[in-house]
Amino acid sequence: MDVLRVEHVAKSFGAVTALHGVDLRLSRGEVLGLIGDNGAGKSTLLKILCGYHQPDSGRILVNGEEVVLRSVDHARSLGIDIVYQDLALINELTVYHNMFLNREKVRWPFLHNRLMRRLATEHLAAMGVRIPDVTVEVAKLSGGQRQAIAVARSVYSEARILLLDEPLAAMGAKEGALILGLIRDLKQRGDVSIIIIAHNYGQILEVCDRVNLLQHGRITYDKTAAETSVAELTDLVVAEYREPPRV
Amino acid sequence: MADAGPLPARAFRFATSTLVRRREASVLVIALLLLAYFQSATSVFLSHDNLRNIAQATAPTAIVAVGIVLLLVSGEIDVSVGMVFALSPYLMHYAIDFYQVPAVPAILLTLLIASGIGAVNGIITVRLRVPSFVTTLGMFYVLQGVLLTTSHAFPVPIPEPAQPTIQSWLGAADWASMSWCLLIVAAFHLVLTRTRWGLHTISVGGNPLGATEAGINAARIKIGNFMIISVLGALAGLMEAFRINSIDPNIGGGTRVTFTAIAAAVIGGTALAGGSGTIIGALLGMLVLAELQNGFNLIGISANPYFLVQGAAILIAMIANQYLSRLRRAGRS
Fold first, then answer.
1. Domain presence at residue B1
2. ipTM of the complex
3. For B275, which of A92, A97, A140 is closest by C-beta distance?
4. Residue from the list B205, B216, B275 with its beta carbon closest to the beta carbon of A102
5. Residue A230's domain spans which residues?
6. pLDDT tens, residue by residue, A84-127
7. b/e per residue, B286-303, with b = 16+ CB within 10 A?
8. pTM for the full model?
9. Is B24 inside any structural domain?
């Protein structure tokens, strides 16, 4: 059974239609690569699936049951978590406060800082993320470290469906390999399903089971990784520039 | 005056070079230096009576500054709080003298109405997306209009049911307002640094988009902080009325309380851009301003150049803040 099914989901922002009616499915333990040109609606789709935006029409089914994702918290309670393109880290806060942002451990009325520090340290170490200390402010970390923190945060939430919006952008080769390794580890566990947006098709094919192409707010291509190639994917995305622009 | 200039200036240089991390510490050093200077210039500075004067000048505005810090950290501002400050004693007076409400419920009702004013500020700012400076500027004049029309701009005595016990507990007794002030500062220092509310306040001010993406309800946090500052403003206004033993439409001097509180917050190290600030710093900032005003009086300088010093203090504090944050950024690994 599919852990996630999207049926005819559409979304407009004012006069701009971002999604025309997207159909998509994700099975248990699967890693789905989502590709497409800038402005194709990839981020909008993920932001609907994580509860940040609400769709105008269409259905979303989680484990076969139709759900209306009211908020980020609600989606999270259903096991859906996301790493945003902009990472959603708060520069002014420490690493461990960011790790637990909006799901803080509390010993009422105060934050349970000691517990959060310990858990964050353990978790980051277990994931192989190297930072000087969890008490440093996120502003002091490098781009790759920040990305790793954002991914680690989502993984820590015990998400069953993980949405990654360009997790490999702004990363050096070494840090990119860390994130790819992380995705492979999750895949081996078998209980996490992942949708990943990326522009590097080589990296996508390395970790994905299947690839979908989103074009002009619709899924226009769906093949397994074995059936396709970097050349074909590149060709698909740039093809529209060779044809006269569609109205 | 010739001696007063270099000393704070030196103190600021010292603070900027050595106290990069603890912003409150540099303000504390300045407060202590001013204290030492004024005590050496006039022996009565540290007398019991004068300390009480300083405490009474510091407390009400410092309570308002606590709210200003919370709001600035969450990325908003409230310039109407000074009018809540002036209106709240009248609200109590109307409730007690016109509607025969007992004193304690009348005070609670006043605070409740103040929280409603804060909620309106917050809702207009957050839901209708009016910049908070404009929202609260409008609210400032609306409240001033309400105050002057309903009071006919006449001062009134403290209502009898509030005398003398409540009056002395809430401001008239020597150390009453300072005790409340320290209690409120301590409580909100904990709120800002040790609770989810504080963490989320920093988050919505530091990275509004990121905070909402993480699922934080930014509207709730901001509206809540608008309500907190209004209640604190009303409480401080009541205390001031009780202390001066009169309900006067000029309490707080219109914009004076608001602007002094913002000055205290800024001198204490709170950034107007949101995301960072300290409540203890604001208290110390207010103490510095009160020391300056009081010390000037004692050494017989006219009150006029005081504003020159306050203005310079704000500018120096802001420049120091910019400089310090550049230093911090440069120190990034």
1. no
2. 0.88
3. A92
4. B216
5. 2-242
6. 988 899 999 999 999 999 999 999 999 999 999 999 999 999 88
7. bbbbbbbbbbbebeeeee
8. 0.89
9. yes
The total of other beta-carbon atoms located within 10 Å of residue A204's CB is 23
| Maximum Cα–Cα distance across chain A | 62
| A65 inside domain | yes
Query: Whole-angstrom Cα distance, residue A47 to residue B45?
Result: 61
CATH of residue B32: 1.10.3470
pLDDT tens column, A186-234? 888 888 999 999 888 888 888 999 999 998 889 988 989 889 888 888 8
> Does the beta-carbon distance from B209 to A132 stay under 8 Å?
no
DSSP string, B193-225: HHSHHHHHHHHHHH-HHHHHHTT--HHHHHHHH
The whole-number pLDDT of residue B331 equals 53
The pLDDT of residue B328: 63
B114 lies in a domain? Answer: yes
Kindly provide the residue ranges of all beta strands, DSSP E only, lying in B94-161, ordered along the sequence.
none
- Residue A194, phi then psi, degrees to nearest 5: -130, 135
**Residue A234 counted as domain residue:** yes
Measured between alpha carbons, how far is A181 from A168 in angstroms, rounded to an integer? 12
Q: Which domain holds residue B237?
A: 6-330
| Domain CATH code at residue A92 | 3.40.50.300
In this structure, is residue B197 part of a structural domain?
A: yes
Tens-digit pLDDT profile for residues B6-57: 666 666 655 555 555 567 888 898 899 999 999 999 889 999 999 999 999 9
Name the residue type at position B236: A
Q: Do A90 and B213 touch (CB under 8 A)?
A: no
Question: Is residue B218 within 8 Å of residue B211, measured between CB atoms?
Answer: yes
Residue A211 in domain:
yes
Q: How many domains does chain B have?
A: 1
Q: Report yes or no: B267 and B27 within 8 Å, Cβ to Cβ.
A: yes
User: Rounded distance, CA A244 to CA A231, Å?
Assistant: 22
Is the predicted pLDDT of residue B2 greater than 50, yes or no? no
Distance CA B111, CA A160 (A): 47
Residue of B nearest to A145 (CA): B333
B210 to chain A: which residues are within 8 Å by CB? 84, 86-90
Nearest C-alpha in A relative to B73: A92
Instruction: Extract the tokens encoding A201.
Output: 């098709």
Residue A247 falls inside a structural domain = no
Name every residue in B having a CB less than 8 A away from some CB of A.
Answer: 190, 194-196, 199-200, 202-203, 205-207, 209-216, 275-276, 329, 331-333
Query: And the tokens for B317?
Result: 């504090």
